[in-house]
Amino acid sequence: MLALIQRVTRASVAVEGRTVGEIGPGLLALVGVQPGDGPAQVEKMAKKLLGYRVFADDAGKMNRSLSDTGGGLLLVSQFTLAADTGSGMRPSFSTAAPPEEAELRFNQLVETCRARHARRVETGRFGAHMVVSLVNDGPVTFLLRS
C-alpha cells in the first residue's frame, strides 16, 4: 500500500461538479493499493497517516502528527500511484491491485482511520473521475509505504 501525503491548508475532491469530500488544515492522502495488500498493510498505513510527524511544533520543527494537531484527513483512492513506470514511455498497471481488492482495502483504511481519528476523515469516490483541489502547505509532500 502506498500513500502520497501532502500537508495542506485545505483540500477537496469533486465528482461530476459536486464536492464529495473537503477538509481544512491537515493531510491529503492519495492512496494506491497493490496486489497482496491485506489487513497488516492497512493497519500500518493507518498508523503512519495518523502518526507521521509533518506538522511544526513550537520550535518550527516537523515534530507533530495529524493526531497531535487534530487536522482533517482526506483519503483519495488513486490506482495510478501503484503503476509500474520502470520501463518504456507508458505505465503498466499490473502492479496495482484489481478494483475489487483495492476497494475493499481502501474502505478498510478509511474505517480504521475514522475509528482512530476524532477529527474529520473525508474521502473521494472510489473508481470515479475525481477533481482534486488543494493548497499544499510548505510544500510538504511524502511518499509512504506500508
UniProtKB/TrEMBL annotation:
Annotated catalysed reactions: glycyl-tRNA(Ala) + H2O = tRNA(Ala) + glycine + H(+); a D-aminoacyl-tRNA + H2O = a tRNA + a D-alpha-amino acid + H(+)
GO cellular component labels = cytoplasm
Coiled-coil ranges per the record? Answer: none
CDD domains reported for this sequence = Dtyr_deacylase
Q: Name one GO molecular function term.
A: Gly-tRNA(Ala) deacylase activity
For this entry, list what GO says about its biological process. Answer: D-amino acid catabolic process
- Among its keywords, does the record have tRNA-binding? yes
Q: What is its main location?
A: cytoplasm
Q: Which domain of life is it from?
A: Bacteria
| Protein localization | Cytoplasm
The family database entries (SUPFAM superfamilies) matched by this protein are listed as: DTD-like (SSF69500)
Pfam families the record matches: Tyr_Deacylase
Where on this chain is Gly-cisPro motif, important for rejection of L-amino acids (motif)?
138-139
Q: EC no.?
A: 3.1.1.96, 3.1.1.-
Keyword annotations of the record: Cytoplasm, Hydrolase, RNA-binding, tRNA-binding
Specify whether Transmembrane helix is a keyword of the entry.
no
What is said about its interaction partners and assembly? Homodimer.
As for family, the record states: Belongs to the DTD family.
Q: What does this protein do?
A: An aminoacyl-tRNA editing enzyme that deacylates mischarged D-aminoacyl-tRNAs. Also deacylates mischarged glycyl-tRNA(Ala), protecting cells against glycine mischarging by AlaRS. Acts via tRNA-based rather than protein-based catalysis; rejects L-amino acids rather than detecting D-amino acids in the active site. By recycling D-aminoacyl-tRNA to D-amino acids and free tRNA molecules, this enzyme counteracts the toxicity associated with the formation of D-aminoacyl-tRNA entities in vivo and helps enforce protein L-homochirality.
Note on domains (UniProt): A Gly-cisPro motif from one monomer fits into the active site of the other monomer to allow specific chiral rejection of L-amino acids.
Name of the featured protein: D-aminoacyl-tRNA deacylase
